[in-house]
Design a protein that fits this description.
Shape: elongated
Number of strands: 0
Strand content: under 5%
Order of helices and strands: HHHHHHHHHH
Largest sheet: none
Structural class: mainly alpha
Radius of gyration: 18 Å
């Protein structure tokens, strides 16, 4: 593992454990096994490191969702596979997802350029708009519907990681909650 990757791995671990403000760059450097100055060769500021982690993880999630979403299906199945892909990525990448959750409620989220935020949201917003245009989804603001879907994934993730569920129980919970969401937005 190169130094940059070591810094990213250490930063993820410490940010998830201690939060953004509770994690000093000196601790990240120590955890990564590099000098503090080395960290700043790769990332000029702590904020740059945090935003880099966010964009890296959002790229990874977006690619996973794109590769695991039904595209030739009806709108309901397409949205369902999109949500399920997001959830399963989260369950397989718990620290990265916890970081993303933390980022979304932090001041750093507000510092991102709108273009960066929209880049990751746009495919979802287009899918929702398609559902509205087809008459399958209620004519509500697209951003509201997206927020509901995003919070569905966050909430379902929280529930599933706090319980000891069998695979069958997990599948039942996922299916039931998706149908509840679908009933709400259609």
């Amino acid at each position: 593992m190169n130094k940059r990757d070591s810094i990213i791995k250490a930063a993820l671990k410490l940010f998830v454990e201690n939060g953004f403000h509770g994690t000093a760059t000196s601790k990240i450097a120590q955890e990564a096994g590099v000098a503090n100055g080395t960290l700043f060769q790769y990332f000029k500021t702590k904020e740059e490191l945090i935003v880099t982690l966010y964009t890296n993880f959002k790229e990874e999630l977006a690619l996973y969702v794109a590769n695991n979403t039904a595209v030739d299906a009806n709108i309901k199945d397409t949205i369902k596979t999109n949500i399920l892909a997001s959830l399963y990525w989260a369950l397989d990448n718990r620290d990265k997802f916890r970081f993303l959750q933390q980022f979304h409620t932090s001041p750093y989220h507000g510092q991102l350029e709108l273009e960066t935020l929209r880049k990751y949201e746009e495919p979802h917003l287009q899918l929702i708009q398609q559902g509205i245009n087809e008459g399958a989804i209620k004519q509500l603001p697209v951003d509201l519907l997206y927020a509901l879907m995003l919070n569905q994934v966050f909430g379902l993730y929280q529930f599933m990681t706090s319980k000891e569920l069998s695979k069958t129980e997990q599948s039942e919970v996922v299916e039931t909650t998706f149908e509840m969401l679908w009933g709400m937005i259609t």
